[in-house]
Amino acid sequence: MLQAPVIGISRHRLSVDGEGVTTLVAFHGCPLRCRYCLNAQCQRPDGILRVVTTNELAEELAVDNLYFLATGGGVTFGGGEPCLRSAFIEELVSLIDKRWHINIETSLHVERHHLERLLPLVHQWIVDIKDVNPVIYHRYTGQDNALVFENLEWLLSHEDIADHLLVRLPHIPHYNTDADVQVSRSRLEKMGVAHFDEFNYITPKKDKKTTK
């Protein structure tokens, strides 16, 4: 039985991160160091809410079984970077109702074997691209984005994945512009991405000053 550290479990989410009513399971740990991280506790050693086993989590999620089935909802895995917990997710899915929809919020900044394990399980991929420009991406996350695009191309090479993949394109104050976002969207459309979520980050007051 596998275990995983979580930073939070949020129930009764409606059409926020997947269809219908969902429960968000947010894992600890992430390969990125995003400047305006919304879940900074995923990086801190003291940010772990608790460590759960697959059996424990399956039982906890089952409380909302009727909501999931009635609305076409299910479970969304986020974080942090949930793909790093691919083995845990695989074991968990084997324990829950197969009618639940499984969604995953990911940066795709992970080794390919995680995606290969998750591909047969996930109904909806919610991919946070940040920006296609490698300079902007590195300034904002501290990482290179080549791996992200290799993984995105691999996902899109599978039949029907484009219909079940949403790319989030944020306008990040002091890091990219509306024009940058449109460049990102154009490149992604050429790759085969059809569904986008464009939005503006709201930054903390202390971060209003431009960072060079």
Describe this structure in a few short sentences:
By secondary structure, the protein is an alpha/beta fold. The protein is built from seven helices and eight strands; from the N terminus they run βββααβαβαβααβαβ. It has helices at residues 54-61, 65-71, 86-93, 112-118, 134-141, 146-156, 178-191, and strands at residues 3-14, 21-27, 50-53, 74-78, 101-106, 124-128, 165-171, 195-200.
Describe this structure in words.
30% of the residues lie in helices and 25% in strands. The protein has helices spanning 54-61, 65-71, 86-93, 112-118, 134-141, 146-156, 178-191, and strands at 3-14, 21-27, 50-53, 74-78, 101-106, 124-128, 165-171, 195-200. Strand 5 (101-106), helix 4 (112-118) and strand 6 form a beta-alpha-beta unit. Helix 3 runs parallel beside helix 4 (112-118). The chain is globular. The model is unreliable at 207-212 (pLDDT under 50).
Average pLDDT taken over every residue = 95
Overall geometric form:
globular
SSE order:
EEEHHEHEHEHHEHE
β-strand number = 8
By oligomeric state, this entry counts as single chain
Radius of gyration: 17 Å
Specify the number of helices.
Answer: 7
**pLDDT < 50 runs, ≥5 residues:** 207-212
Strand content: 15-25%
Category from helices, strands and their pairing: alpha/beta
Q: Largest beta sheet: what is the strand line-up?
A: 3-1-2-4-5-6-7-8
The portion of residues assigned to helices is: 25-40%
Distance between the termini: 46 Å
Largest sheet: 8 strands, mixed
